[in-house]
Batch of 2 targets.
Target 1
Amino acid sequence: MSASVAVAQSRAAPAMRLLPVGTISARAILVALMFVTLMPFVTMFSAALAPSGTYPPGLQWPANPQWQNFVDAFQSAHMDQLLLSSTIIALGVVPLSALIGTMAGFGIAKLAPKGSKVVYLLFVLGLTLPFEGIITPLYYEVRALGILNTKLAIILPLIGLYMPFSVYWMRAHFVNVPDELGEAAQIDGASAWQQFWLVQVPIARPAILSLAILQFLWTWNQFLLPIVLVEVPLERTMAGALGAFQGQWGTNIPLLCAGSLIILAPTVALFVIFQKQFVAALLQGAVKG
Amino acid sequence: MSLADSQRSRRARLPTSVRGRAVLVAWAFIVPAFIFYATFVLVPIGLSIYYSLLRWDGIGKATFKGLSNYLVVLSESDFLQILGNAFQLVAYFTLIPVAIGLGVASAIRNHLGGRFGAAARTVLFIPQVIPLVAAGIAWSWMLASNGVVNQALGLIGLGGIARGWLGDFDFALPAVGLIGAWVLLGLCTMLLVTGIARIDPSLYEAAKIDGASAWDEFRWITLPGLRQEIGVCVTVTVIAALASFDIVYIATGGGPGIQTTVPGLEIYRLAFAHRQVGLASALAVVLMLLVIVCVLPIQWLTRQPK
């Protein structure tokens, strides 16, 4: 009996007829959660529209909304340059680290040369590494390489720092691909390289996409490396530059809020457009990481 | 190339003749990743350990000091407070999101379908895609003396306890903890909601027939069924708390006093402001070990087969 009720309920729910009590209370809970989640953005937005330089109350629709604040924040923070700089850094990190992470995951899972298990263990050891743990030597290393204060100072270390997760993630994918596929390609006379590009990568596309999304988010939002390794805010990621603006505008709440909203807009926009892929990546990423 | 093709052109190859080459090719796939990892992670870890044995200002000559930096980190009261702060943050970063997430997951089990569920999912994930610094700025503003938190307190007649929360000696650390809880709440909730949807509904049916209370259901079906997901939430949030940096840097800068200073922030300060590279590195090694020591038991407890 209860099973048929459940079926009836699940049929009724999408049609919005006769919402059961459970659904109503569930929605009330979700609305409360969404409220808590969105509140910080709403109050930043209301503050961003207050006259520049004033100290507005927490939440109040301003009598005379100052949309100009967004323009001022954009210009005085050189957001266009920052967007470009962040994009260059992300483009420097994501494709290369996704590629070599995928290659290593494939090599360890499918080609498995002797000794690769030990190498894999070394990678896994790095999974929980807090970046602060190595930031000091990283600074001296990057300085010795002569790339301090350039974008490369962020790009190259990040690729290395992403390898534990990338290799772990891609190996987990390749381990589940049946061996027959690779064997069939080998019998066809395909080299390992051909097999990788023509057989394995096409199948691995969803896993690689999730990996790339996560690497993009981590890069775009990276804060510690930019503030330590790059002195000029305009050469940093947007998140790294935000730290400098807070010092610069700490007392001008409307401009600081407008600037923060502009800085978080690109990832939120990308997220809303590609939400299915993002949600999948974030959920799986947490589980596997 | 399809399977049919491969069957048509099946030619036997002699794998032994190319064995050595195959091993080289296999390593060629692995080595690029390993070079980056070794250069920018393994070598720095080694250097962190090496620096931690030195007294060095980062410029002049270093002197070997043995384990004395560790002695300072593990015995001086300021360092103990800083490490303690990290553990207090664990209480907020971990307990609040996991407890609320469990409550929400049990309450909305099987009710996250349709457009409404999809919208909720999108909104709850937003804190995961924005930079933590932005979350820090937003919440600094929420918790400021004329921010929305105090405004709301005034509305419900609690205006008397209003204050600048992040500057308050007693409330600054809990306030920072709250920011972290906000960032992690959505992720934990969604993980647990997805997990609970995978639990066999017939278990709940059977419990209902047996007259089990809601608590019994939670204790004997939901909790064991979500063990793995809870493990994931706890692991992610504990690491986020112990290794916190961005939020604290932006929201309080570690103050007032060292009330909200966490190991990550102290490492940054010691190494780059006070030029005490040895001490910073000893704290860094302690932090790295602390994370591993805290995460491993969680993995053990929750990764066993159900």
Target 2
Amino acid sequence: MKALKGLAALSAVLLAGSAYAASPNASMSSVLDGLKKEAGVGAFSAEEGRKLYNAKRAHSQKKEERSCTTCHTANPAGPGRTTAGKVIEPISPAASPERFTDPKKVEKWFKRNCEWVLERECTAKEKGDFITYMMSLK
Amino acid sequence: MRFRKKITGTLAVILAFGFFAGGAANADDDARERSKTRKSPSFLKTPESALYKEECSSCHFLYQPWLLPSRSWQVIMDGSQKHFGENLALDAQTAEELLAYLKANSSEKTRARWAEKITASSEGLTPKRIMDVPWIKKEHREVGANVFKRPSIGSASNCAACHTKGAEGNFEEDFVKVPR
């Protein structure tokens, strides 16, 4: 049974790999599984993740429009730029392979950046959709 | 012949000194600096901290800790949940280690001319940003607000946009190149 599961995971990885999109490593897969349980959903939606990535929102105090794209730009495969002027690596794991590989980092940046854009933490569903969208990028 | 050699040698020394001291603001300053801190260099490269780099330079220029006095770092780290409007989401241990590094290498702890100027000009103040250090502000007085806002620069937080050797702690005017 265990071997079968492993085989299924392996073929999933291979299939995803053949489409040139990134696929979650073992630790990120278990993060996604945990988020699914927490969100109570069977699967995440890359489309919802795409919407979240592009959604613009007016900050309640700063009187400015904020979104993920403020820093990461509308093109996830291109370099971004922080509000402090620093150029950052593309957020898309297809362009920056180290993205979305370290659960601790992913969690920290969700906390920082969800608060910056949405003025609250992201839900498990939002995080899962977002990661799924990022992983689907080619 | 021997006399001539000596003169050339002295001249070379004077010229070399003039060259090194040339970057400072004005002759008065220079003279005072020379008599007081002849031996200290204008800047030092702070020993690197992997943690500082990881936690702070993801978003901004990795400011040399000697650009601010200890009490400024204390206030900045105390406010890490509202760091220029952003929650840095640092765990307690990380925050503690960062503060220890910043304080150990602050302006007061760095034996270099610029650090000493920063300490002296911040006396009685707790600058919350580097541009609030009076001496640093003064050094940028000729840079217009519109220059900082250029898309190629973004804001005054982006030291490396113009200070081409800023990452090494070298803010010498000779290495400043303001992008269009």
